[in-house]
Structures are given as structure tokens and as C-alpha cells.
Amino acid sequence: MLKASVWSRLKQWSQKDHRLLITSAGVTGAVIVLRLIGILQASEFAALDQLFRLRPPERIDDRIVIVEINEADLQQVGQWPIPDQVMAQLLQKLNSYQPRAIGLDIYRDLPVEPGRSEFIKAFKTIPNLIGIEKFQDSMSPGVPPPPVLNQRKQVGFNNVVVDPDGKVRRSLLYWHIKGEDRKSFALQLASIYLKAQGITPQPAEINPNYLQLGQSVFRPFTSNDGGYVRANAQGYQVLANFRRPGSFRTVSMVDVLRGRVPPSLMRSRIILIGSTAPSLQDFFYTPYSSSLIKEVQPISGVEVHASFVSQILSATLDGRPLIRVLGTPVEWLWIFAWTSLGTSLIWKLRSPRRASLGLLLAGASLSGGCYLAFLAGWWVPLIPPLLGLVGSAVVITTHLAHLKEELKRSKEFLQTVINNIPDPVFVKDKDHRWIILNQAYCKFIGYPLETLMEKLDYDILPKHEAEIFWNQDELVFQTGEPQENEAEFTDAFGTTHLISTKKSLHKDAAGNLFLVGVIRDITKSKRAEQELRQAAAELTRSNVELKLSEDRLRYLAYHDPLTGLGNRKRFYECLSQTLDWARSNNNQLVALMFLDLDGFKQVNDTLGHDTGDQLLKVVAQRLIGSLRSSDVVSRLGGDEFTVIVPGIPQADYAATVAEKILESLSQVFVLEGHNVFVTVSIGISIFPHDGQGEELLIKNADMAMYRAKQLGRNQHQFSNSL
User: Fold this and answer.
1) What are the strands of the beta sheet with 211-213, ordered from one edge?
2) Burial of 259 per CB tally in 10 Å (0-12, 13-18, 19+)
């Protein structure tokens, strides 16, 4: 019943709202196509950047310090590249502060005299120093690493992935070169810091090809993650969760060389050395580079790498979320859900003002949901579902305008037609409102047309009548099948009529559904019919009572009044019929059992006849429960019972039945608070082995029963002829 109900509701929904489903699916498909060909990529990037900028400011990551080389530093040194001697002094000075790691984000593949030997010595004596190299790509040639650091495996690449709009939104962790996985500059520095915390890179349990640090799994970027379409996913990339510019403590190179930086600022931290001078043009655009009211501001390369390092540390040590994306099927369902919401809002609200407000609230909810998801580390699509929400609303609005125009034409046509019909006629829309009524209907109900138009049955008729009409109309809407119903109808003057209404559905060219009903007053004919039925009922009542009396007498004649089992007369009749059947079917075997209770007299004497009667009733119930429905149980009288078991395959089957009866009756009987125990002795005769006639079979079964008594009771015995 439940499955049928669910299927019925699904069918009803499909019939009523299939246009909404088709519209939602169509608009969703169109949005997905736009998404797949990349038209929405730029707008999704812009939405992601806005989410970054709306995110609340985070505290400064004091695990990282940037030593910047600004324009003032260049003027103090008076040369670029900075001489090796100055760089060596800077590195030794920083190393004296006991930092956790030093990252040199400056290319030093060639000597810059003077001071080359000092510079090489610094490379050799600072174990936690990481230099950079750049792999060749389509945008620029490669830059080799410092030779000494390369030999000591203290190098990381600083290649940056730039999106088509010129912004950095991804970070590279590994690159595969000549069969070897090379670490990025940021990963090298973060690994040194984490190793001191006892954390080393390891394969993730969910996929051994994924990088796991502590409890954080860095899932690699794929070409269609988030708003990306067929992006270059070479190497091991992850989506960058940038910090806001200014999230790292920054000191100048000259301040370090002159000892103006307190050692505590550098101790046990990661130090990144890099250029922030505009003249050196080492800048990148990130999600924070754009603003609706400010000029676009790039971010220095060293700060970009600092943000990459901070992302790894924060995810591993602080639980700061990495940016995750929805799978493709889930993303499509997400788009479909919001598209469906757009269609439903317009379809249900109809009013332009309410629909516009509903869409505005839906759009705000979508944006708010995406923002909250982003705070939790999820990049959930915003532009595709927003486009689906608005697009489906436009389609449904256009469709509703068409329906409204077609409805107006249909109402005018139907009004002209039904005014010429003498019977009361009404037309309702799918919301059960009267939209067309002829003059005969208005006269019949007693209200003017203006009072009834656009009203419900509940607005005019008594509640119980309105509810009946509503259910009858809804059945027509659900099934689409014509119906004819009879019901009571109370007019404006309080007069109740019996009416017969024929109802059917009609659909115009635009798909608008109308329920058309034609009423016929059957009050007089129904009253005459009721009078005839009353007379016929009086005539037949006496015959029924007579028949019931005859049936009762027959039942009493053939059944035991105490147990409800067949009595002795019924037993003989059933035995005769059973043997006739067995003879006509090639002498099928029939078992006849005589049963006598052991200890019944003692129950009567000690507990009374009422308890004895209760015992006989329960014995009868247990006998019925132990046998097949085709077997016949009878009570001959007193504590004697018989059982006829027709159509048995062999004589041993009767023994199995007897054992089942013995086990059932040997269980305790709880009667009026007393535990009563009785047993039964059973004698069995088999047709045709123990006799061809009823009397001989009965005699042999009775004798076998007495033999069971003599042999100790609570057992069964077959006739001697076996």
C-alpha cells in the first residue's frame, strides 16, 4: 500500500509539474554546457576572488618573517644584483639568530663579486638554507640553482602557476623532472619547520599518491576543479588559500645588517629573503589584488611564497582548511537544485513583486551559503547556480505570460458556450476556484455571479459539503478521468438538494487545465427511490430473519455447544463423505483417530465442572492448531474426541500426526490460576487396511485407543490388523 501511495504521488507530481521539471533540466543543461566550454570561468574566478576579500582578517602568522630588499636597500647597496659579500653577511647575520629555516628567494646561479668565497662558505655552513631554481616553461626560460646548494639538496623551485586572467590561485608542491620528484621552495621550507615538530611527508591512507602532513591531506588539483575548465594540472598542484596581504612580519635587509632587528623576532622562525622593490618587477596578482573601489595592487613574489609556506603550516599544525571542491556529479546536482528553486518560486508566487522578492532572497541565500562554505574551506560554485536561478525564472515567467493570455481567451470562449446550456454548469481552475459560471448555476445556488467568481467551495458552501466537493474535484485532477458523483448541496436559502454532477478535465492550447462540471437536481427521484428501498427492506427483513433462524438451528444440530467442534452426528456425516471420496480416488488412505483424555475425571472432581469445561475448550483449540485445515476434529461426548485425516501418503504419517497431538496436549494448561496436566490416549485405524466401512473402522480405532490406555496411557496405538 505504501509503495502504491508513493507511486501515485510521484505520478501526480509528474502530471502537474512536468513543465517545471523539464524547464529545470533544460536550463541546468544549458548552464552546464556554458560551464564546460569555459564561458563562465572568468566570472567564477571573480566570485572566488570576492570571497577571499570578504573573508574576515586573520591574525599575523608569526612563524614566518620576510626580509625584504626594497628600493631604499638597493640605494644603500648601490648595485643589483647585490654583491655576494653583502649577501653572505646577511645570511650569516640571520643564521646567528637561530631561525628554523632560511629561504633565499633570489636567483644566485652566477657569482657577483666581490665576496664569492664568503658567499660559498655561507652556503656550506648554514644547513637550513634553501635556495631557488626555476624550471623552464612556456612563459620564460629556466634559471639554474646555486651550484653549492644544489649539491647539498637544499634547493626548491619557485615556479608559479598563473591563470588566464593573470592571477595566481594555485600552488605547486612537486614537479617531476627526469624520474625525480622535485620539491617546491615553499614545501622545502615548510618540511624543515615541520620536521622539527616530528612531522614528515607521507602517503595518505585514502590514496597513496596524495601528500599527507600530520592529519592534513593535500589533494592534488585536477583540470576541472571548481570554476576551472581544462586547466593545466601538470605537477602536484593545490588550490592556494592565500592570506590577506600584510599577514607576515617584514623587516628590511639594511635593518638586519645594521643589527636593528631583535633576535627574538627571528628565532625558531622561517625567514624568507626576497625583493619588494618595484624596479625589480618581482610581483604577482592574487585574489586580493582586485577591488571594486581601489586600484589593482600586485603582491611581491616573496610574499606569495610566504603565503604558500603559511598554507602548509597552518593546515598541518592549526587545522586551517585547505580549499576543497565539489565532485562533478554533486556540482551538477547543486546547479539543478537552485535552478529548480527558481522555477518553483516563479510558478508558485506568480505575483511579479513577490516573485522578484523571492528571487532576491534566494540569490542572497545562495551567496551566503557559498560564503559560509568558503569559510569552512569549500569552493562551491556561485555563478552557475545563480545563472540557473535567474535563467529558469525568466523561462517560467515567459511561459506564465503565455498561459495567462491563453487562459483569457479560453475563459471568454467557454463563457459563451455554457451560457446557452439550461443545466447549472461551472468551470474551475486547478486551484479549485470558480472561474466560469452560467446563469443557471447562479440561479440554482442563489448567489450573483460577482459573489461567486474566483471563490472556493469553502467560501460559499457548508464546510462538510465543501470538503466532499474538493476531494471529488481533486480525484478528477489527479487521474484525468471523468467522474460522476452524487452529493448534498445547500443553496443560499438553506435548502438542501441531492445533486448528480458529471465532471471532466479540459485543456487549452497553452496547457491550462479546467474542470468542467454539469449539475442535475435529483432530489425528487432520490426520495422516491429511497421510499421504494424502505418498502423492499421491510418486505425482505422477515425472510432474512427466517433464514437466520434456519441456519442457527442447522448449526446447533451439527456442532458441540461447548467446544464449537462437530458433534457425533457431524462426525458420522464427515466420515461417510471422506470414505466416499477416498473410494472414488483409488482408495486413498484415510486415518481415523479416537482420542480419550487421561486424568480428566480427576480435574472435574478436584477443580469442578466449570474448570473441566474450560479444559475441554482449550483441548479443542490445541487439536485444531495441531492439524491441517483439511482434517476434521469432532467431540463425541465427555472427554472423547475423533480426528479424520484424509489423503495421507502412508500409514506412518498418521503416527507423526498422533505424536504432534500428544506433544501439544502434554503441555501445561493454565486454567483460572491453576496449572493442570492431562495426557491423551490415541487409537488409530487406517482405511482401507482396517476396514472398508465406517462401523468397522470406528470399532478398530476404539479398540486401539483402549489398548493404549492399558499400556500406560499418553501414547498412540494402531489397530491390530496392521
Assistant:
1) 202-203, 211-213, 216-218
2) exposed
